[in-house]
Amino acid sequence: MERSELYKIGELARLADVSPRTIDYYTKLGLLEPEKRSDTNYRLYSDETLIRLKRIESMKKEKYTLEEIKVSLEQWGRVSKDDIVTHKLSSLQLHLEQLVKEAKELEPIIEKLKPNQLKKLTKLLTQPTAACIEALLFLVGKGPFT
To answer: Mutual orientation of helices 9-16 and 47-61 as an angle, nearest 10°?
Structure first.
């Protein structure tokens, strides 16, 4: 059986490139939870906590508030207790939201394109867009494979 590494707060902070105070704060907010306590009462955090901490920092860089991050992590946690799955799903959520934002920013530019430019753009985007839509439909259980 593979043993998961356990980290004291300082070790976790160093690995995640955040301050120990940040970890304390996230723990108080319920964003992080220690795996257990040591015999000397140190909080010990797991590898899964390190992954979660990196995901929180990634979401912060995307301008999510800590409350939004907490809600998102709770929602994905209800979908799956597997931290790798929840990480991938929340990462996908971030990418989709970024795509929506970028598409909205492009709208005024696209409206100014000439017909032949618009035709080329459509040709370039159709296949990857269709593949993305198919993958998302499959993900939500409405795809051709269900």
So the answer is: 50
Tokens 């508030």 locate to: 65
d(CA 134, CA 12): 39
Exposure string for 83-98, b = 16+ CB within 10 A, e = fewer: beebbebbeeebeeee
67's tokens: 């409350």
The type of residue at 144 is P
Q: Rounded distance, CA 97 to CA 72, Å?
A: 13
Across 129-138, average pLDDT: 84
Query: Per the structure block, which two tokens stand in for 141?
Result: 């259980």
CA dihedral (24, 22, 20, 44) positive or negative = positive
List, for residues 53-86, the tens digit of each pLDDT value.
998 998 898 888 999 899 888 887 777 767 667 7
Q: Residue 119: helix, strand or coil by DSSP?
A: helix
Q: Work out the pLDDT band at 146, boundaries 50, 70, 90.
A: low
Rg, C-alpha atoms of the chain:
20
